[in-house]
Amino acid sequence: MPTASFLAKVKKLGDMPADVALKKIWRKGFDRLYFFFRKYRLLVFPTKAVSIQLEGFHTRSRYLFNPQQQAEYVEMMRTLNCEQDIIEQAELICSHYFNLLGSSLTYLGERLPWNEDFKTNHRWENRFYKEISIIDLSNAADVKVPWELSRFQHFFTLGKAYWLTGNEKYALEFKAQVEDWIIQNPVEMSVNWTCAMDVAIRAVNWIAAYHFFSESPSLHEAFWRRFNQTLFMHGKYIIRNLENGGDHTGNHYLSNLAGLISLGLFFRDGPKGRHAWGKDAEVWLTYGTREIEREMFVQMHEDGSNYEASTSYHRLVTECFLVVTLLCQRNDLLFSDRYMHRLEKMCECIMHTMKPDGRTPLIGDADDGRLLIVSRYGKWIKNDFRHILSVAGELFDRDDFRVIGRDFSEEALWMTGKPPKQTLPKSIPLTSCSYPDGGYFILRNEEAYCLVRCGELSFHGQGTHSHNDQLSFELQVNREDIFIDPGCYVYTADYRMRNYFRGTKSHNTIQINGKEQNDFEELQLFEMREETFSQCVAFQENYFKGMHHGYVNKCGLVHCRELTLRPGEFEIQDRLEPAPSSVQQAADVNYCSTYILPPSMNILERTDKCIIYNENISVELVWDEFSQAQIDECWVSESYGVRVPSKAIRIFSSQFQMKTWIRWHVV
């Protein structure tokens, strides 16, 4: 009997023009045949998978940093006082201690477990990559763990330590890890060949490592031949497995393009014959640069926000665009002025959504994804995006970016080759602003910051990386978090917690009769049906008014919320208005307004208010006479794989409107 998913695919084909449907069917059939023969070729002739001849190859492309200026970079690292931290992190890497995706600092053994989730001891056996099942919701294994280790983002730190010390042990550790990875991960025959995004990120980081270690006397031609052959196969794999086959492209496809461009530049000057690498490299580079220019206007809104509706993924895609743009500029390849203007707007969006303490609310999904980690490896704070602005300050010659990113000058050094500017203002005043395309509205005054979420779900309503957070907000006063978004925690490793963190009850908004704002299936972890269709009705400097329709078909009600920021006070007014078009009756209504606290805050409960405090601030949450409150236990997560207990205040009412006041006194 045909499955529901099969019937849905048939219907989708039926809705397409005949020529488009036939092309898709032909493509699917060709792919099946190709992968059938590819599998058996790899099984029978495994050595031919990397048979490209690269003896004596040395790239002629220019990189983000210039290896010929090693002495200048070493001097600048010492000037920036980051030498000790780099050496400490490199020593941990050499000793095989890693902190990945919430594992805490863990010894991974003498031989690194490239194909394992070392947190659960689950191992993926080697076989043809199309036949590897990467997700099993019945167990706690997380495929992101071996993928994360195999991205090799720690190589940049090893390279810096090598330049600082000249100690060959760092080059030998680089060599040992590459050789062991190649042995344990034959081309297209392991879990680390199942996701083109991760193959691309690995390629980007191997190329960075090449520029640190290419002159090491400990690394001989035989090693570099294996390294370059395997690296070349990364490009062959990516171009054949591009992640652009769905309804929408996203950060995965963008990472694919970053990998192709990096590989295309790396190998572009090779011979162009039929069996030589130069021809492939030109294809990768031409395709990658054309597509990444196009994707800028597919994935990024006109106001500079990203259509995945996630601040964390906005950081990742901005990093991908920045790295590619700078790398292409170094090799005399330029993008259009329109592209550069949109990239600058992306960086402005990061600047304006940032809280006064330098961190950014983790709206929507967050998996800590990065392309290159060029500074603070092992210590970078997952919701601190200021490293992006440090780089953008040099690219766009903007002092406001430089001032906010001044603590991340090492990032700008490696990415742009420019030392930090010495004379800068002490601070940059930021004011209230809005990003309506992305659904972010920011209220600011001298004391407080508030970000309100009110906008379309990710991928134009598909909801892949969205949470039920419409009309939810974060509030920070005097650089102290008062109410926060809880974050994300995990994806497939625990589907129940995945659904908990993306649910309405986990956000600072209204939940009516226990219903979700947007419904989602328990096991469909990357889909959420757009039902809210949120609207910003009014936005001024310290005032926001918005509504969403997520409860219209469930309760016959529209949720309207007004937020007003004043000195010493934040006022919230919620109204539930009958929806004229709804057949539902809005007679019986019970709802609660949730307020998620950070773990750093203490709480005292009174009859008509709660007092939230720490040693720096005291805040009163006061509700009207028709409401009552209770304090619940909850979970919050500042980074992937990590959750900590906290408290949630829930204010209950059966009235059709509720008023709440938040008042503070700075100690």
From TrEMBL:
Q: Which InterPro entries match?
A: Chondroitin_lyas, Hepar_II_III_C, Hepar_II_III_N
Pfam families the record matches = Hepar_II_III_C, Hepar_II_III_N
Q: Lyase among the record's keywords? A: yes
Query: Superkingdom of this entry's organism?
Result: Bacteria
Q: Which GO terms describe its cellular component?
A: periplasmic space
Q: Which GO terms describe its molecular function?
A: lyase activity
Domain Heparin-sulfate lyase N-terminal positions? 130-380
What this protein is called in its record is: Heparin-sulfate lyase N-terminal domain-containing protein
Q: Which organism is it from?
A: Paenibacillus albilobatus
Lineage of this protein's species? Bacteria, Bacillati, Bacillota, Bacilli, Bacillales
